[in-house]
Amino acid sequence: MFNPLIVYWGAKHWGRAFLLPLALWALLSGCANVQLVSAYDAQIDTGVSRYAQDLETYIAKMAGLFGQPEGAYAHNRDFYAEQAGRLGALILRAEATDPGKGCVLSDKAAELLGDRLPAELKSVAKDVSGNGDGCTVRMLKNLKIQLGQLAELQKTMQGLNSAAAVSVLNISSQAIRAVLAVEALKKKGIEG
């Protein structure tokens, strides 16, 4: 028997009956791809590599100019402004793609990084409850802090002598290698 009330109820509620499972499926499938780390970014990789090259060239140049007016901080402010700007842009780029889950590295990534993993990341590599910055963001911010410390050192010493230059370069190179290593892991899909 044809019952118009059943047809009306079915027509009115069929959308809910169809759309509810569809919405649930979409929600659950979205959860399956929770991203704990940002994706590989070639511009971060290239930018950090260029920063490393510029920093090494600058430090070698300053060690050769130690004791001369050209080796003093006042004559080299532009270098610091340019590099701070470059690192600031890389930080913004990393923050834009950071999933906001903190610095989460898998055991495999931490194992592959080994000694290249900065001390500040070793203690937080599995901690998602603290600072929301991802590993790349934290490491880039660390590079910017180190650049500021280099500027202060150059101001204080009226330049950079060879011993200070080697020490600064070793510390900065370790931090740069860590960023590049994390980006390489991301590129290979091993990061998280």
Q: Can you tell me the CATH class of the largest domain? A: Mainly Alpha
Helix/strand structural class = mainly alpha
Number of H- or I-type helical stretches: 7
**Compute the gyration radius: what is it?**
25 Å
Tell me the count of domains.
2
Strand content: under 5%
Distance between the termini: 60 Å
- CATH-derived architecture of the largest domain: Up-down Bundle
Average pLDDT reading = 74
Give the biggest sheet. Answer: none
Helix content: 55-70%
Task: Break the fold down into its secondary structure elements and pairings.
Elements (H helix, E strand, L loop, with lengths): L3 H28 L10 H23 L12 H21 L9 H7 L5 H4 L12 H23 L4 H27 L4
Helix pairs in contact: 2-3, 2-7, 3-6, 6-7
Feature tags:
Four Helix Bundle (Hemerythrin (Met), subunit A), 2 domains, 69% helix, mainly alpha, 192 residues
Textual characterization of the structure:
With 192 residues, this protein is mainly alpha-helical. The chain folds into two domains: 1-33; 36-188, Four Helix Bundle (Hemerythrin (Met), subunit A), CATH 1.20.120. It has seven helices and no strands. It has helices spanning 4-31, 42-64, 77-97, 107-113, 119-122, 135-157, 162-188.
